[in-house]
């Protein structure tokens, strides 16, 4: 990682996920404050106690953690290993990324080497396979055979965004845990804890803005806090919205209201300022509209129409259509509505 990339950038979860501390630079907070034990994990009240009981009984099945980015899947897997193996956890926990550009054969070889290598007094070791849903069905079938081959001494924890992308024979061999977006309370609690530990002043509206911008993604919230704190002053709403490339909820609401009132030119100007001046991606605008739609001061029918259009635009953008054109067309269709 180059020096420039070591600064947290909240918009880019992937690059900051590979946190590294660079000599003389600030340590990346997502790593510094990554929970080490299961009970330090915020939220996931229906998952953590079940993992604790596996650890207490020292009886771990193969696990599958599915859910959105930044919600604690890797953290939970590492915490299980730390609790099972104490100081020896690193030797007994192999973390691999299934989308490793060197290919599935490399991943499979590393799994085999790890599972075959000598053991330090433990019944089994853990292989954590991140982005398991990046594997093709054929690669997953091969993985399933590997899981069976080493079932006597290895436990797998597979992490994925969508469990539906994992073949049934693997799912049925795992206890599946569905991680959801973290609650506002969970994100707020962690943000406040870190701010206290770092001696950073954060205003209440700054905390609210971080929680809103994160939308349940703890990595985003913590990176947002660290990036805003670099500015020096107290972390407030304005700083957070600027640094996280997030529109204020009022701005997206105003844009929709103008379109519905028939003032397409004004709605388009707001969209333009969000995309051009503020640097939001089209997908971010859609996500924010989707999250806030029911809080807008609109007739129910207008909200329903908005959601219908959003679904269409989201799909088209995912298929590669021009973002700005799609969003403008959505505003135009709202403006044309009787
Ligand atoms: N539930 C949580 N409680 C406290 N901190 C959390 C929680 N979830 C995530 N974090 C923080 O966010 C960072 C990223 O989380 P983690 O790597 O566990 O996400 P993930 O779900 O594995 O995401 P991805 O799917 O992108 O790999 C952690 O280092 C930790 O600092």
TrEMBL record:
Domain of life: Archaea
This protein's record includes keyword Transmembrane: no
Any coiled-coil regions, as ranges: none
Single biological process term from Gene Ontology: DNA repair
Molecular function, one GO term: DNA clamp loader activity
Listed CDD domains: AAA, HLD_clamp_RFC
InterPro entries, per the entry: AAA+_ATPase, ATPase_AAA_core, DNA_pol3_clamp-load_cplx_C, DNA_Rep/Repair_Clamp_Loader, P-loop_NTPase, Rep_factor-C_ssu_arc, Rep_factorC_C, RFC_lid
Region of interest: Disordered: 1-26
Residues annotated to bind ATP: 67-74
Pfam hit, one: AAA
UniProt cross-references to Gene3D superfamilies, sorted A to Z: 1.10.8.60, 1.20.272.10, P-loop containing nucleotide triphosphate hydrolases (3.40.50.300)
Keywords: ATP-binding, DNA replication, Nucleotide-binding
Gene Ontology CC: DNA replication factor C complex
Start and end residues of each AAA+ ATPase domain: 59-184
Subunit structure: Heteromultimer composed of small subunits (RfcS) and large subunits (RfcL).
NCBIfam families, sorted: PRK00440.1
Family to which this protein belongs: Belongs to the activator 1 small subunits family. RfcS subfamily.
Function as written in the Swiss-Prot or TrEMBL entry: Part of the RFC clamp loader complex which loads the PCNA sliding clamp onto DNA.
HAMAP family linked to this entry: RfcS
Protein name: Replication factor C small subunit
């Amino acid at each position: 990682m180059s020096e420039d990339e070591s600064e947290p950038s909240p918009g880019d979860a992937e690059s900051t996920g590979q946190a590294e501390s660079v000599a003389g630079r600030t340590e990346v907070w997502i790593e510094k404050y990554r929970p080490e034990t299961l009970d330090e994990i915020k939220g996931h009240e229906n998952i953590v106690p079940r993992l604790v009981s596996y650890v207490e009984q020292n009886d771990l099945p193969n696990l599958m953690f599915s859910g959105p980015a930044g919600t604690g899947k890797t953290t939970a897997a590492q915490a299980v290993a730390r609790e099972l193996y104490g100081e020896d956890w690193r030797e007994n926990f192999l973390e691999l990324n299934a989308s490793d550009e060197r290919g599935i054969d490399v991943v499979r070889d590393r799994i085999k080497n790890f599972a075959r290598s000598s053991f330090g007094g433990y019944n089994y070791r853990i292989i954590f396979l991140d982005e398991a849903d990046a594997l093709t069905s054929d690669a997953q079938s091969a993985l399933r055979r590997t899981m069976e081959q080493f079932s006597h001494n290895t436990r797998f924890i597979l992490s994925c965004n969508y469990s539906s992308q994992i073949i049934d024979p693997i799912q049925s061999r795992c206890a599946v845990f569905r991680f959801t977006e973290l609650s506002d309370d969970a994100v707020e609690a962690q943000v406040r804890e870190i701010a206290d530990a770092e001696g950073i002043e954060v205003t209440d509206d700054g905390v609210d803005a971080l929680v809103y911008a994160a939308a349940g993604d703890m990595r985003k919230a913590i990176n947002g806090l660290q990036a805003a704190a670099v500015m020096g002053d107290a972390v407030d709403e304005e700083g957070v919205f600027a640094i996280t490339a997030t529109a204020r909820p009022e701005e997206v609401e105003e844009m929709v209201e103008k379109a519905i009132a028939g003032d397409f030119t004004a709605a388009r100007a707001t969209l333009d300022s969000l995309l051009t001046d503020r640097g939001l991606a089209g997908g971010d605008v859609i996500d924010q509209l989707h999250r806030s739609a029911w809080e807008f001061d609109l007739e129910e029918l207008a909200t329903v129409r908005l959601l219908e259009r959003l679904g269409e635009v989201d799909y088209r953008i995912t298929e590669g259509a021009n973002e700005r054109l799609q969003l403008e067309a959505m505003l135009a269709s709202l403006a044309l509505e009787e």
